[in-house]
TrEMBL record, chain A:
InterPro entries: MlaB-like_STAS, MlaB_ABC_Transporter, STAS_dom, STAS_dom_sf
Domain STAS: 1-74
Protein name: STAS domain-containing protein
PANTHER family: BLR2341 PROTEIN
UniProtKB/TrEMBL annotation, chain B:
Domain CheW-like, chain residue ranges per copy: 571-701
Record domain Histidine kinase: where: 312-569
Residues where Phosphohistidine is found: 47
Reaction(s) catalysed by this chain's protein: ATP + protein L-histidine = ADP + protein N-phospho-L-histidine
Any one cellular-component term (Gene Ontology): cytoplasm
Protein function: Involved in the transmission of sensory signals from the chemoreceptors to the flagellar motors. CheA is autophosphorylated; it can transfer its phosphate group to either CheB or CheY.
Protein name: Chemotaxis protein CheA
A single BP term in Gene Ontology: chemotaxis
Enzyme Commission number(s) from the entry: 2.7.13.3
Length: 107, 718
């Protein structure tokens, strides 16, 4: 799992790639916490996610909640990788109101 | 239409056309189910209708067509076979879309129940529905039927026969499930391979910065509704490794199909109740399902009642207003524009000739103008001409549905669909044709067993044909059924006082009685016909179009109805003739020539004249219409032909050829059937346009009455 900070049009985009599974859940949470602490609006690129389990989906949901508590929001850059999209669909996260927009174009 | 946004009006018009194409395509697929190009065309039509519906605010059309499009897509990709049941259902969907299209847009929800009822039937053909696929027609050559799900399933488990079941699955994972190597996502992905799955994830949602949030634990629970043909044990097997630690509940909620939107609505009932135990949540879900099923049942009954009422009301229903727009061949428009250009040039030439007072040049312009006006008239009238096939195609569906409802096997054949007719005539001829076709199917054609008993093929045949004949279009509806029992017609006619018991009317006259109001020889009245209401209306409608209708029959071999209609209702070519100070137009279509006669002594209303070696009846218009003034000693005879008869009309003078722009008679003169209208002449006077066939009938009727009254007048030969 890698979370890389990129610049797109002068704005930060956090690209998440590789396996986003339970082994990397703690590290991902830490990386997201750091990203949330410096961005009210966080833009994530999940097109490189190769494997996703429930921890990835829960972390996305948790990130939205924290951002919204601080008056911010979660945005997406690029497409959703097939692995992430399939996980979100079968587990009902793509229809969870907080994440519906994040997955909307792809579902 | 003028109040409607032009883009919406265009959508409505295009959708009407697409629905027409769809219907034609579906009917053709019935005879040739392997026509993949036709399947593609049907899918594209539905796809376009759906897309436009969403774009132009026809939300109900868009919602309804979504599932229909999915089913057609499955047919297109070979997942579903073309079956008669599916075609019937899609035809019903086409009708429903038309209803939605014609309903006021703010009342579309009123049709939602009917949409849901149809969609419930379509659900069997959706992924996960009972109509599984991959079927090809079997070797027996019979039409493909729905394959039982057990034969082949698109899901990762053997499918049980019969309709699918809807299960409610609740998974409340142990928070430490991940530590045992299990993952709810993987379990749900496996479950997803067994049916059409809808998931509600709810329950605790810790925020990222919540100190208690452990990203390696599982939060919340999953309520799932899955429509599956698989056995419950297959579903249980998915959770076999987590059953001990996690809460897993699997309950069959319903056997049968529900729409995806219904499943989502049911799941939404559980939102906010994640703390409830299985029993409570189950009761909640079952109550919601019972309410949903009751609503669907009520909608079905309401729709059936409504449909029945509509069917009963159909024969009396008013003809739909003719569409206000017309598609015109671009070549015809180009030619019209080019003629208008020519007209401008002629006007300029006329001005120059007038300035120069050059009479020869004016005459030349007049000749050119006459030629141009003729062409312009033909092209302008051509703009209103439509192929009658546009109506014929609708009858294929009518006969198909009607034959099925009457339990008859009928082949419908249409010829001459390319024959063009004025749009107004086409719009108004549809209802009479529907009535005649219904009669043919209901009373004319026998049931297959009756046909076989008399040595006929079991399949009956109804032929509808159209062709040009003179200035008319002749439409013929013929069937090879039992024909009309003239003796029975006579009995009924005598009973009703239409024919005197001792009279010897011809067969044609007896058959004409069928067009009398309330006349029916049908032993029993059906939903389709037999009440004796209608044939008089058919005749009245056709006559209102300046047309005629005739019936002929051979007992045991079938009946034929022949309708003759004028090509257009707007302008006719004719000859202007004068009787005293009265001016008449004889339509060119009926004109066969001119003769002359010298009159001596008393002039009879009906006389004879020699024409080409045989005697032809002639009618003195002066006597017939009591035209004031002296009878000239020399008369012109206008020879006409109507319905195969040659009849001459004596007039004082023949003025010449004239294009008559028809102005309808006022209602108070409508009983004068032998006048098809009036026209205004170049000098501002008025001419009456004679309807020759009607005039001949009028004279014959009048002379017959005199004969019956014992007056020694001649009559026209029958």
């Amino acid at each position: 799992m890698e979370l890389t900070r990129l610049e797109q049009g002068g704005k930060p985009v956090y690209a998440l790639a590789g396996k986003c599974t339970v082994e990397h859940a703690a590290a991902l949470r830490q990386a997201l916490l750091e990203a949330v602490s410096v961005n009210t609006v966080l833009t994530l690129d999940v097109s490189g996610v190769e494997e996703a389990d429930i921890t990835f989906l829960q972390l996305l949901l948790a990130t939205v909640l924290t951002l919204e508590q601080n008056g911010g929001s979660l945005r997406r850059h690029g497409s959703v990788s097939p692995a992430a999209l399939a996980a979100a669909r079968v587990a009902g996260f793509s229809h969870t109101p907080k994440l519906a927009n994040f997955f909307s174009d792809e579902d | 239409m003028s109040d409607v946004d032009p883009s919406i009006a265009l959508y409505i018009e295009e959708t009407r056309e697409l629905l027409g194409e769809l219907e034609q395509g579906l009917l053709e697929l019935e005879t040739n189910p392997n026509d993949t190009a036709r399947v593609d065309a049907c899918f594209r039509a539905m796809h376009t209708i759906k897309g436009g519906g969403a774009m132009f605010g026809f939300e109900e059309i868009s919602r309804f067509t979504h599932d229909v499009e999915t089913v057609l897509d499955r047919v297109r990709t070979g997942d579903l076979p073309v079956s008669r049941e599916l075609l019937s259902l899609t035809l019903a969907a086409k009708d429903h879309i038309l209803t939605l299209l014609e309903a006021p847009r703010d009342h579309q929800n009123a049709h939602r129940d009917a949409s849901d009822r149809l969609l419930a039937s379509f659900a069997a053909y959706l992924p996960g529905g009972a109509a599984t696929a991959p079927g090809h027609a079997d070797d027996s050559g019979e039409s493909p039927i729905l394959r039982p799900a057990s034969e082949e399933s698109e899901y990762a488990c053997p499918a049980l026969p019969g309709p699918p079941s809807i299960y409610w699955v609740r998974l409340r994972p142990n928070p430490d499930m991940l530590l045992t190597g299990n993952d709810p996502v993987r379990l749900l992905a496996e479950l997803d391979t067994m049916g059409d799955m809808h998931v509600l994830r709810h329950g605790p949602k810790p925020a990222l910065d919540n100190d208690d949030f452990d990203p390696e634990r599982v939060y919340g629970l999953f309520d799932i509704l899955i429509a599956t043909p698989c056995a419950v044990d297959n579903l249980r097997d998915v959770f076999i490794f987590v059953e001990g630690d996690s809460e897993v509940g699997i309950h069959r909620l319903h056997t049968g199909i529900l729409r995806a939107a219904d499943l989502d609505e049911l799941l939404a009932e559980l939102k906010g109740h994640h703390d409830e135990d299985l029993e409570l949540a189950g009761n909640r879900l079952e109550a919601a399902l019972a309410a949903k099923l009751a609503a669907i049942e009520a909608a079905k009954q309401k729709s059936q009642t409504q449909k029945g009422a509509e069917q009963r009301a159909a024969p009396q229903a008013k003809a739909p207003a003719a569409a206000a727009t017309l598609r015109v061949d671009a070549a015809r428009l180009d030619s019209l524009v080019s003629m208008v250009g020519e007209l401008v040039i002629l006007q300029s030439r006329l001005r120059q000739a007038a300035k120069a007072r050059d009479l020869d040049a004016v005459t030349e312009v007049d000749e050119d103008l006459e030629r141009l006006t003729d062409n312009l008239r033909d092209v302008a009238l051509g703009l209103r001409m439509l192929p009658i096939g546009s109506v014929f195609s609708q009858f294929t569906r009518l006969t198909r549905d009607l034959a099925a409802s009457l339990g008859k096997d009928v082949e419908f054949v249409a010829h001459g669909g390319e024959t063009e007719l004025d749009k107004t005539v086409i719009d108004r001829i549809k209802d009479p044709l529907v009535h005649l076709l219904r009669n043919s199917l209901d009373h004319g054609l026998e049931r297959p067993e009756e046909r076989q008993a008399v040595g006929k093929p079991p399949q009956g045949r109804v032929t509808l044909s159209a062709n040009h004949s003179g200035g008319n279009v002749v439409i013929v509806i013929a069937d090879d059924g039992r024909g009309i029992d003239v003796a029975a017609v006579r009995r009924k006619a005598v009973e009703r006082g239409l024919v005197a018991p001792e009279a010897e009317p011809s067969e044609k006259e007896l058959l004409d009685c069928i067009f009398a109001p309330g006349f029916s020889t049908a032993a029993k009245v059906s939903d389709v016909s037999g009440r004796g209401v209608g044939m008089d209306v058919v005749k009245k409608n056709i006559e209102a179009l300046r047309g005629t209708v005739e019936l002929s029959s051979v007992l045991g071999q079938g009946a034929t109805v022949t309708i003759r209609l004028p090509l257009t209702l707007a302008i006719i070519d004719g000859f202007n003739v004068m009787v005293g100070g009265d001016s008449f137009i004889v339509p060119l279509a009926n004109l066969r020539g001119f003769q002359e006669r010298f009159v001596e002594g008393q002039v009879r209303t009906v006389d004879t004249i020699e024409r080409m070696g045989s005697m032809a009846p002639v009618v003195s218009l002066r006597r017939l219409f009591d035209v004031p003034g002296d009878q000239p000693g020399y008369e012109r005879v206008v020879i006409t032909e109507a319905e195969g008869e040659t009849v001459g009309f004596c007039v004082d003078k023949v003025i010449g050829r004239q294009q008559a722009v028809i102005k309808s008679l006022d209602d108070c003169y409508r009983h004068l059937k032998w006048i098809s209208g009036t026209t205004i002449n170049g000098d501002g006077s008025i001419s009456l346009i004679l309807d020759v066939p009607q005039l001949v009938r009028f004279v014959r009727g009048r002379e017959d009455s005199r004969l019956h009254a014992g007056e020694p007048f001649r009559t026209l030969p029958q």
